[in-house]
Specification:
The longest helix has 14 residues. The chain is of the alpha/beta class. It is built from nine helices and eleven strands.
């Protein structure tokens, strides 16, 4: 049985929405999906089309979304369409739309930077060595089972979130003399969410295609896409 995946991509070019999503098209096709790609989120307002979508891969950093498109996306997920993505393409989208933030369950707040004396003046200012730790729940979940804690050198997302998410992996922001917080902050790095009859999957690593190519990150994202998709 062929299922349908819809990739919606765009927004800030710094997250490489075209190159990043292109990485996963062959995987989806190999797993029985017919893949369509849209460069605008207005497709979400097309109720007839969305009713036939089994998985939405959301890859639009920042940007905005119309009321009609947002209502369409929420209705589709409630009816069983899966919603999945990584990094800012899903966790830093549509900042002014609270209904979108509620749907996803977590929102990018910041990515703490390197020491001020160790910043080259480009995106590497926010690249830190950090650990992604699999939670007890994650060790038994099909998305993260068999994956050990791993380290990355990239942006480390600080995420604001609610209690309706199921956290499969976390990352901890330590205290630093040059940061204003006074105790370590634990943020979700991989989570799932049940919404109506739909499933939501989010992984915060994925700033560049190189990070998405990390074997641990790529495995988590690929499994997350399959997990989120509507069950035949």
């Amino acid at each position: 049985m062929t299922r349908r995946a819809l990739i919606v991509r765009g927004g800030w070019d710094g997250h490489h929405p075209i190159a990043a999503t292109d990485m996963f098209v062959p995987f989806l096709e190999q797993n029985g999906f017919e893949v369509a790609i849209e460069e605008t989120n207005e497709v979400y307002a097309d109720a007839e089309r969305m009713a036939g979508v089994d998985l939405v891969v959301q890859a639009v950093t920042m940007s905005s979304i119309s009321d009609d498109a947002l209502r369409g996306l929420r209705a589709a997920v409630e009816a069983g369409t899966g919603l999945a993505g990584w990094h800012g393409g899903i966790a830093d989208s549509y900042r002014n739309s609270s209904d979108y933030l509620q749907l996803v369950g977590g929102q990018f707040a910041t990515h703490p930077g390197r020491h001020p004396d160790d910043r080259p003046g480009d995106e590497r200012d926010n690249y830190l060595d950090h650990t992604v730790g699999i939670t007890e729940l994650g060790r038994g979940h099909e998305i993260t089972a068999g994956i050990d804690d791993f380290t990355l050198h990239t942006e480390q997302y600080w995420v604001l979130h609610d209690d309706l998410i199921d956290v499969l992996a976390t990352t901890t922001h330590p205290t630093q003399e040059y940061h204003p917080w006074h105790r370590p902050i634990v943020s979700p790095a991989v989570w799932t969410r049940l919404w109506g009859r739909g499933r939501v999957f989010v992984a915060t690593p994925g700033h560049t295609p190189e990070i998405l190519a990390d074997p641990n990150v790529r495995t988590i994202v690929e499994r997350g896409l399959l997990w989120a998709a509507r069950t035949p």
